């Protein structure tokens, strides 16, 4: 008698080999048989007509605060994700001195757009060191597994205090940070992370460590190497190019650690991604493990009257009413004289980055229902404005007022210069890249890319009408065995005997993404963008059903993954 048997599904095992019709038996949280299973199960799931795949392994999330109050880690658990890696981009909540908790919250709020009020109310701060943080996480049963990285900004704040933002680290500072990084990785962290982009700011300026000299970063990697495992993760404006390449190669060669960095097509250096992919060939030849981390769709800002940014969000006429209830704002913005005033005003902001993003008329589109993440240029504000001979501000305002003010506009941040997904396809199917960048738990008021694992199937496997598709088996391997291997999770990501029974049962024909919506369900009533999906018949973690027909079951066999 098995604990569970899944009968007659189309098993896509995560390795990329062709699907086979088979049963899967599970006992004590592990897969024991794949093929024809003669024995019965205490529970049996009929999978005829369904795809049976490993649970998704999402390696780029920011649930570092939410993990302390939400055992289900939605929205990720709604999208078949069974393992998440958090602590990315150099920000997180450990180690922390008792008088510096507010500082780390302000960093996370500034970098990842997570409401500070929610973090203040939701986090209990039952730790100081990183090992104590892991122990605190280990106490809570969850609907999925979590793994954590040691964040560079928190290390700098802990060691350097008020000097963390402005001064170069001393040799003693670096030694202390390296020792803490080693301590965290030895306790089970899966790596160390840092940020080197001007986009990551708090009210104090750039995130601590953004301009750290190479020998400081080398010190962190050396601490990780002494612990014997781990990934060095970074996000950078240089996209793996000249500004990072020399020190990163030196760091990996001298320590032997594995590194991964965020790669996207930048509008300011549109061909650098090709150079980065070409460099991976030399790395592979030389035995160097530097892995570009890419997305399966452009990182997409969602402009709306409920979002933290939209083309009128800094206009004086809008600022005067932005705190009113949504219905009152919609009524006000619908008045002809108000529309005229908005169209005549310029944004009142000194933030050149925000200003540029809000006025890229050829990169702003109605998201629609069902949501369209690959719209043509003709559907953009610029395209409609030119076709209808109307000012772009009028077009945008019309779109913002749709659905009683709850409509969203899709504004790709990167990798959408040519208004198609061909660059995305080349990046994600390159043999030396790995999928990531969903940012689950972050950018609560502006970005909702947590649905990327589902989009991988709805767009690239099922629904691609404007270009070549990706085979089902290949697509699933990208989000399972490939992501698991990148972080050294050797017990998951493949459906074979002896592996963890983290499994998705999927109605592929019935799978689609719903429209994102704004929820106000964080602690202290904080807002966040959420998105659900149809098509997940069941998700299993360690052989137990955690979600069935789109509803969480309340079963929580998950916890902390220590490496």
Provide structural commentary.
The protein has 2 domains: 56-299 and 417-504, Alpha-Beta Barrel (TIM Barrel); 302-412, no CATH class. A hairpin with a 2-residue loop joins strand 2 (20-27) and strand 3 (30-35). Helix content is 31%, strand content 20%. The strands form 7 sheets. Strands 1, 2, 3, 4, 5, 20, 25, 26 and 27 form a 9-stranded mixed sheet that branches. The chain has a 6-stranded parallel sheet with strand order 9-10-13-14-15-19. The protein has 563 residues and is an alpha/beta fold.
Write down the overall mean pLDDT.
96
Nearest-angstrom radius of gyration? 23 Å
Poorly predicted ranges: none
In whole angstroms, the N-to-C terminal distance is: 32 Å
Structural class: alpha/beta
Please render the helix and strand layout as text.
Blueprint: E1 2-11, E2 20-27, E3 30-35, E4 41-46, E5 51-54, E6 56-58, E7 81-86, H1 101-112, H2 116-122, H3 130-138, E8 145-148, E9 150-151, H4 152-160, H5 171-186, E10 191-196, E11 201-202, E12 205-206, H6 214-227, E13 231-236, H7 242-255, E14 258-262, H8 272-285, E15 290-294, E16 300-303, H9 316-319, H10 326-333, H11 336-344, H12 352-358, E17 365-366, H13 381-388, H14 392-400, H15 402-405, E18 409-412, H16 422-429, E19 434-435, H17 452-463, H18 472-478, H19 481-486, E20 503-506, E21 512-513, E22 517-519, E23 528-530, E24 533-534, E25 536-541, E26 544-548, E27 551-552
Parallel strand pairs: 1-4, 1-5, 6-7, 7-8, 9-10, 10-13, 13-14, 14-15, 15-19
Antiparallel strand pairs: 1-2, 2-3, 5-20, 11-12, 16-18, 17-18, 20-25, 21-24, 22-23, 25-26, 26-27
Helix pairs in contact: 4-5, 5-6, 6-7, 13-14
